Amino acid sequence: MSGLFSIFNTATRGMSTQQRAINVTSHNIANANTEGFSRQRVVIETTTPFGMPSLTNAAEPGQMGTGSQVSAIQRVRDSFLDYQVRTETSVKGQFDAREKFLSEIEGILNEPGDTGISTLIGKFFDSWQTLSQQPQSSNARTVVAQQTAALTDSLNHTAVQLDKLKENTQLIMKDSIFELNNMLGQIDQLNQQIIGVKVAGNEPNDLQDKRDLLLDQLSAKFNLTVENKEFGGIDLRPADATDLQDSSVIKAQFNNNSKRFSYVSNIEKVNTNGSISANGDVYKITYYKKGNMSSDEDRVELYVSGMSAEDVKQLDECRVLWAENDGTAIGTQMKSSFDNPVDFRSLKLFKPSSGELKGYMSVQADINDYNDQLDKLAKAIAFSVNAVHSGMEDVTSNGEPKKDYMPYFVNGDVARYENNKLVNLDDDLLAGKSGVLSSEKDITAKNITINKQILNDVMQIKTRTHDNMFDYEKDNNIDGETDGSRALAIAKLRDSLIKIQDIGSTINERADLFKYGGNTLGNNGLDFTSNINGMKVDNYYRDVIDRLGVQNQEAIRMVKNQESLLDSFQQSRESVSGVSLDEEMSNLVQFQHAYQANAKVISTVDELLDVVINGLKK
C-alpha cells in the first residue's frame, strides 16, 4: 500500500541509484586517458511495483511504482570494431617488421654508392681493361690486384653484415616469443578471474578492459581468433592455424591444456664426421621452452631425423615450435638421441598468417635469399675469371693431371700459404681436408678472396695469349711482355652472358659452367662464349638491388596504408568506447539534479510526516 513511508523509500532508492550513476560517471572521468579503458554506463530500471489487489492489498488505480534501481553497469564496446582493429594491427605488425629490416639490408648493400659492390665490379673490370693495354706495367697489375681485393673484401663484409642482421632478427624473435608467452599467461589469468566474477553475478568490466588491451597488443604478434564462451570467458587461437587439431592458446575451460610456443636457438648437423644414423642425417636442435633463454632448465637438446635441405631451411627461417602448456615442444615427449632421433614430421612449426612474427620470418627468408644471390655472384665471378685466367674449363686440363697452379680467386676458408706460396692445391685425403682446387665450388660471398700469392707478387697474374700452356706466368717463353690478350679476355667478361640464376642448381663448379651453363671456352681460353639465356654479372647484381628496392617500397607503402586504415578503425572504436568529457559532464549534471530532486522528495516527506505526527497533538 502506498503512503508517505513508501514515498520515502522510493526517494531513498532514487538517491542510491543516482549516487551509483554519479560513481560510474566519476570512474569514466578518472579513466578518460587510461589506455584500453571502455566507458561504462549504468542500466537503470524500475523496481518491482505494488502488486494487484488482494485480500491483504487494497484496490488502487493501477500498480504503484516503488522507484528505481541499477540493474547493471555495462561496458560500451563493439566486438566487430575490436575484430577489425586486431586484424589490421596484425597486418601492420608484419610490415613494420619487414620495413625495419629491409631498410637495414638496403643500408648494408649501400646501393647506389661509390663504395657499393656494383661500383667495385665496374672498377674491377676497368682495371683489367687498363692492364690489357700495358701488361708489362707493375703499377697496372697492382691496381688489378687491389681492385680485386676491394671487391672481395666488400663481398665478404656484406655477407658477414647480412649474417649479423639475421642474428639480430633471431634475437628479436626470441624476445618476441618470450613476451608473447608472458602475455598469454596474463590473459589466461584474467580470463579465469573474469569467469569467477561472472559466476558470482557481478560485471568484471575493468578486468575485461585489461584482457582486451592485452588482446590488442597480442594481435601485433600474430593474427588471432577470439571465441566468446559462457560467463565472459574466451577461447583464443591463431587465425588460419591448421597444423594442430586443437590450436587454442587460451581456454575458458581446461586451460592447462592450452598451447604455448618455444624458440629454436640452434640447428646443427651432427653426423658431419661421416657417421650416419640408421635414420639418415641427424640434426641436433636446441630450443628454449617458451623462449626463456635466461634459465638452463628451459634449454632442451633434441635429435631430429628426416629433414630435407628444404626442411632445414624452413626451420631456420621459422624457429618457432608449437609447445604444450609447460613449453615442451609438441611431438617430443620421448627422449631422443643420435641413434633414436625424433622424426621431423612430428614437430609442429608455428607459421602465422600475419603479425610481427610473420614479418621476422619473412625477413629471415629474404636475408637468406640475398645471401644466396651474393653467393651466386661470387661464384659466377670466380668460375669465369679463373677459367679465362688459367685457360681451363676445370681444375684439370682435358682430363690431364695438369692443374690450375695459379687460381686467381680462391676459397679463403681453405687456402693455406707458406712463404707466400699456395701449398694445398690437392685434397689431403689422410687428414680429410679439402684442397684449394676442390674447394673452389664452395666459394661464397663470405669466403671469396684473391690468391694471396698473386697479391704478394702481382707479376704472377696471367695476361698473355699462351699463359694457359704454362703452370706459371714466368715460364711463358712464347709471348712478349706487351701481350695483354688474356687480360683483355677477362675484361670482356663484363659483357658476357652467364646463367648466374642456375648457380646452385645445375651449376655447382667451374666445369658445370661449360657442361650445363651453355658457355664455351676456346682459343687458349681467350674466347668465352656467352649463353643467350644468361645475364651479365653487373646486371644480375643490379636486378638484386632493384628487387630489394621494390620490396622495401612495398613494405613502406603497406605500413602507411595500414596506419591510415588502423587510425580509421581506432577512431570508430574510440567514438563508441572512448570517454567524452563533455558527455560525462552533461551526465554528471543530470544525475546531480536527479539526486537533489530525490533529496527534496525526502525533505518534503519529512515535513509531511512532521505534520501527521506532531500536528495531531494540537
Task: Summarize this structure briefly.
It is built from twelve helices and 17 strands. It is of the alpha+beta class and 618 residues long.
Topology, element by element:
Blueprint: H1 4-30, E1 40-46, E2 68-75, H2 79-109, H3 117-133, H4 138-199, H5 205-219, E3 224-228, E4 234-238, E5 260-269, E6 282-288, E7 299-305, H6 309-318, E8 320-323, E9 342-343, H7 356-390, E10 396-397, E11 400-403, E12 409-411, E13 417-418, E14 421-422, E15 448-450, H8 452-456, H9 485-491, H10 510-515, E16 520-522, E17 527-529, H11 537-577, H12 581-615
Parallel strand pairs: 7-9
Antiparallel strand pairs: 1-2, 3-4, 5-6, 5-8, 6-7, 10-11, 12-15, 13-14, 16-17
Helix pairs in contact: 1-12, 2-4, 2-5, 2-7, 2-11, 3-4, 3-9, 3-11, 4-5, 4-7, 7-9, 7-11
Total helices: the number is 12
- Report the uncertain regions: none
Question: What percentage of amino acids are in beta strands?
Answer: 5-15%
The main pleated sheet reads as:
5 strands, mixed
Oligomeric state of the chains present here: single chain
Shape: elongated
| First-last Cα distance | 28 Å
Percentage of helical residues? 40-55%
Query: What structural category do the secondary elements indicate?
Result: alpha+beta
Rg from C-alpha positions? 38 Å
Order of strands across the main sheet: 8-5-6-7-9
